[in-house]
Amino acid sequence: MINRFFMPDYCFDDIYAITPEFLVSLGVKLVLLDIDNTLVPYEEPLPTAPVLKWLAGLDEKGIAAAFISNNERERVETFNRGLQYYASWKSKKPSVRYYRKAMEKNGVGREGTAVIGDQIFTDVWSAKRLGVPALLVKPIRDKKTLLFRFKRALEKPILRRFRRREEKETARRKEGKKL
Ligand SMILES: [Mg+2]
Q1: What is the pTM (predicted TM-score) of this model?
Q2: Which residues surround ligand 1, an ion (CB under 5 A)?
Q3: Which CATH class for the 2-142 domain?
Q4: Could you read off the pLDDT of 8-55 as tens digits, one per residue?
Q5: For burial by CB atoms within 10 Å, which of 6, 64, 126, 176 has the most?
Q6: pLDDT tens digits for range 110-129
């Protein structure tokens, strides 16, 4: 159950660890991006210079991007003003409605799409429902509310399982080399 709905396909320390080359190797032509805590912290209204550079790097490789956020309209529109990507607010993730719209707008199907976000129960779950790779990044800076701490606590066993699976995979690869 966990594997099918909540297990990220890849985990990264931050978005900068996700290179355009890696995305190209996955066949990705469109990334559906979470904003808060994935690209910038909550209190940062605009894309920072490193974020813009990262997005430009994707663009250079012909990878399109869209923002799918559960946050308010004003936050998303302000963030997207200079970029003018497809963007949706109050998306009710893990609803996949706006992800699908973004794919339609960009003319990219499941096989060319990936989801990038920082939360298992919104971003990763959405990716699983869509049937596209889920790329999880560590949250930049969490809100300190009780609800948030609770959500993070629920994510922990899943992340532990991801790491265990990775370790096994690495061990298997090493053994394979020996043979
Ligand atoms: Mg987020």
Answers
A1: 0.92
A2: 34, 36-37, 118
A3: alpha beta
A4: 999 999 999 999 999 999 999 999 999 999 999 999 999 999 999 999
A5: 126
A6: 999 999 999 999 999 999 99
CA 120 – ligand 1 centroid, Å: 9
- Please give the distance, rounded to the nearest whole angstrom, from the Cα atom of residue 6 to the centre of ligand 1: 15
Give the C-alpha separation, 168 to 51, whole Å.
33
For residue 134, give the nearest of 94, 170, 167 by alpha carbon: 94
Residue 89, Ramachandran bin (φ over 0: left; ψ between -120 and 50: alpha; else beta): beta
Q: Distance, CA 68 to ligand 1 centroid (Å)?
A: 10
Rounded distance from Cα 170 to ligand 1 centre (Å) = 29
178 Cα: distance to centroid of ligand 1 (angstroms): 41
Domain boundaries, the chain: 2-142
Residue for token digits 């699908």?
100
Instruction: Using the mean position of ligand 1's atoms as its centre, give its distance from the Cα of residue 96 in Å.
Output: 15
Q: Which amino acid is at 163?
A: R
